[in-house]
Amino acid sequence: MAKTVAAQLAEVLALAGVKRIYGVVGDSLNALTEALRKRGDIEWVHMRSEEAAAFAAGAEAHLTSQLAVCAGSCGPGNVHLINGLYDCHRSRVPVLALAAQIPSSELGTGYFQETHPEQLFRECSHYCELISGPNQLQRSSEIAIRNAVGKRGVSVLVLPGDVALQKAEDVRLSTPESLSLSQSVVTPSAEQVKQMVSLLNSGARVTMLCGAGCEGAGAQVVELARKLQAPVVSALRGKEYVEKDNPNFVGLTGLIGYASGYWAMIDCDVLLMLGTDFPYRQFYPDTADTHVIQVDVRAENIGRRTRVDVGVVGSVSATLQALLPRIEQKRDTAHLERALTHYRKVRAELDDLGRGTVGKKPIHPPQVARAFDLQASDSAIFTCDVGLPTVWAARYATMKGQRRLVGSFNHGSMASAMAQAIGAQKAFPDRQVIAFAGDGGFTMLMGDVLSLVQHQLPIKIVVFNNSSLGFVAMEQQVGGMLDVGTSMHPTNFAALAEAVGIKGLRVEDPGQVDEAVQQALATPGPVLVDAVVSKAELVMPPRITASMAAGFTLFSVKALLSGRTNEVLELARTNLWR
User: What angle do CA 538, 542, 544 make, to 5 degrees?
Assistant: First the structure.
């Protein structure tokens, strides 16, 4: 039987090293799924939602740095992909999306389920093209793969179901080596290195801010920090690369960061930004006395968040390799010691918040996060939903050993944790995968909890169950508003888990936390820990402004006047009367 276009696509994907495709089947995808069935070397991972499929592919791509694939059937099927694909693209991970299309003869007629994916996905992809006939498939699919891998982002192939069934053209395929492109190393010019060396050697107090661009450069970051006697602050996406084995690490900055990270950046003579596009301008130093050096492989990132004295286009690893031999060893440790002392104090305070007292309800969410951190293996992979679960992961999931951290840190989407955990567990079946989920985010894509059962994925989900959209409520209160639309119906998620064949553990007392975490991690299959936590837990930023303080005061007054006295008392009990 002649090879179909779908079979040719599967052959190209196999050459590119693709191991699985996440998606939901549909008639417009039948040719592809049949081609995969016949080959047997690419797994179809049956998901309950295409959005979850895209998140899962993104997590696999992030953790492996290899091309991952997701797929959606025509019309609504591939439209569901879009939120996850936005996350993949903004996180700069190599993902190929296969968007099936209605029969090609019906395009432009307003046919059932007709959409135009080649337009819809344009903003969240490097490459997005419609395959109109067999003569396009091989070349377009290879171009799509090279764009996703080479540019680090999303490519989309739109393939009508009838075209997928047609006879493929007999063409010579590319080699695996030409499809699995390695990342290029960009070395800065000698003049740029000289400018950096001059500023760094003359600056008395240097602080380093490190982001995702420090992947693979952790040891060089540690060595440079040692020579400069510089505290190392990380953006959230840099945490998994620069926290480990780093004696100069002083925490994160930003709203969910540490006071020690914030002040180490604000109070310095030279700020060295390495591979970060940290977006929050109010957390950068804003005095004329502070000089800023920014190193990034992408020129468009330089200077768009804060004023920069020296901008360097280069890979962090190559740049530090050029810098290190020319950096003078600093002897004055006052700046570093001050930052480390501050960090140890803040770290102790955060750890103290992670200790509970038997019988003293409700549970403080930091206690649950800290218990998982202390008991998880050194190769655990943590995923987290946006909002408060991201806070608990940022502050309590320690990056040591081979640990990794995945979240929707650029796109900021709810519901990513469980879906990303599926991709992580599929890519690394022998490693612990722990998902920090909020009750709001978990319920948005709750259908894919069935995927854990169907694929027998031993993922451990902890639902921080506060019956509230907690982070949104806090933002409203900071603005002096009464929280509206944030309350959620109280739900026993452990009972729900048991009903679908997953071990469910409901935890309501601080005295139950450690035992529940131990039991969850020791259980071979999937487990859901339903942690009933306080909804009044404040996430204190490293810098409290007058307007924020005024906002909380105004909220309290409004709550009292409207008869919501219990909310003010709960807020006080939770955060002041520990």
Answer: 75
Q: What is the pLDDT of residue 256?
A: 82
> Tokens standing for 444?
């948005």
Please list the residues that pair with 206 across neighbouring strands: 270
Helix axes 5-15, 134-151, angle to 10 degrees: 30
Six-digit token pair at 397?
Answer: 């999931």
Q: How many residues does the chain have?
A: 578
Cis peptide before 458 (omega within 30 of 0): no
| CA gap 221, 226 in Å, rounded | 9
pLDDT of 9 higher than 70: yes
**Does residue 347 surpass a pLDDT of 60?**
yes
Q: Are the C-beta atoms of 126 and 155 separated by less than 8 Å? A: yes
Nearest alpha carbon to residue 208 among 242, 180, 162, 254: 242
pLDDT tens digits, 258-295: 889 999 999 999 999 999 999 989 889 988 889 999 99
Four-CA torsion 50, 52, 53, 55, nearest 10 degrees:
130
Query: Among all residues, which ones are annotated catalytic?
Result: 50, 112-113, 386, 471
Count of alpha carbons within 13 angstroms of residue 490, beta-carbon side: 7
Backbone torsion region of residue 501, taken as left when φ is above 0, otherwise alpha when ψ lies between -120 and 50, otherwise beta: left
* CA nearest to 84, candidates 471, 423, 397, 402: 423
Query: Cα–Cα distance between 145 and 86 in angstroms, integer?
Result: 17
- Identity at 487, one-letter amino acid code: S
Q: Distance of CA 46 to CAs 394, 422, 503, Å?
A: 31, 11, 21
pLDDT tens per residue, range 72-126: 999 999 999 999 999 999 999 999 999 999 999 999 999 999 999 999 999 999 9
Residue 538 binned pLDDT confidence (cut-offs 50, 70, 90): low
**Tens-place pLDDT, residues 369-417:** 999 999 999 999 999 999 889 999 999 999 999 999 999 999 999 999 9
- Look up the pTM and report it: 0.91
Q: Per residue, what are the HEC states of 65-131?
A: CCCEEEEECCCHHHHCCHHHHHHHHHCCCCEEEEEEECCHHHCCCCCCCCCCHHHHCHHHCCEEEEC
Residue 550 predicted with pLDDT over 80: no
CB 98 within 8 A of CB 128: no
Residue 472: per-residue pLDDT: 55
DSSP 511: G
What is the end-to-end Cα distance of the chain in Å, rounded?
73
pLDDT of residue 476: 59
One-letter amino acid of 284:
Y
Dihedral sign computed on CA atoms, order 339, 344, 347, 349: negative
- What kind and span of H or E run contains 56? helix 50-64
Task: Report d(CA 167, CA 7) in Å as an integer.
Answer: 9
Residue 367 tokens, joined: 């206690």
Which tokens is 501 given? 């064949």
Q: How confident is the model at residue 562 (pLDDT cuts 50, 70, 90)?
A: very low
Residues ≥6 apart with Cβ < 8 Å to 132: 104, 160, 163
